[in-house]
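Supplementary notes for students who missed Thursday's class. We covered one full example, reproduced here. Read the sequence, then the structure, then the short commentary at the end.
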Amino acid sequence: MREPPPYAAVLVRLLRGPLYSESGGAWDLLLRHRRQVEGWFADIALEVIVAEHDGLAFVRRRRDSGDAEGEVPRETAAVPDLVVRRELPYRLSLLCVLLVEELYRFEAGSSDESRLVLDRGRIRDLVQPYLPRRTNEAKQADEIDTQINKLVQYGFLRPLGAEGSEEFEVMKLLKHKIGAEILAESLERLKAYAAGTAAEAGNDHE
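Structure (token representation):
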């Protein structure tokens, strides 16, 4: 029987999701066998993104330099998607963009903290100015909580403490999903959408 490569555990971890430096042994294996790991994923039309300064690595469908965002090289277009691509609804996209903006602001500050932690109330406060006003605030809070839970499932937020915790770490993976170059444009579009929605809601009450 053929022996698995010494970095097999890294391949499995990356196929399951992002790998973080806090993983210890798996992270060390990745750095030690980075070239082989990248070559293995290249054979199935995926590329490994290793952000050592952020302590994370993940895989995505390979794009050549100069390709548009999401554009797939012609020679790999026939390869079935292994990495799931999600089209996020407006509210979830809005929450992602606002959290990334908060993350960049945090990193630009002088805090000695290495990670951004926000409680549920603060996350709600970030989103609410961009949502139509509702008389039923409790229902709107529940809807925002639903989006927060989805971001936990996607690995963009990490609950701290026991189940039901009110505090979340904003994962740096978000920065690599919404780059700085598209952050400003995304914010403008989402704000315009929110303004239009608010105007429509105002007209409905006239």
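Commentary. Residues 180-204 form the longest helix (25 residues). The beta strands are 19-20, 46-51, 56-61, 117-119, 157-159, 167-170. If anything here is unclear, bring it to office hours.
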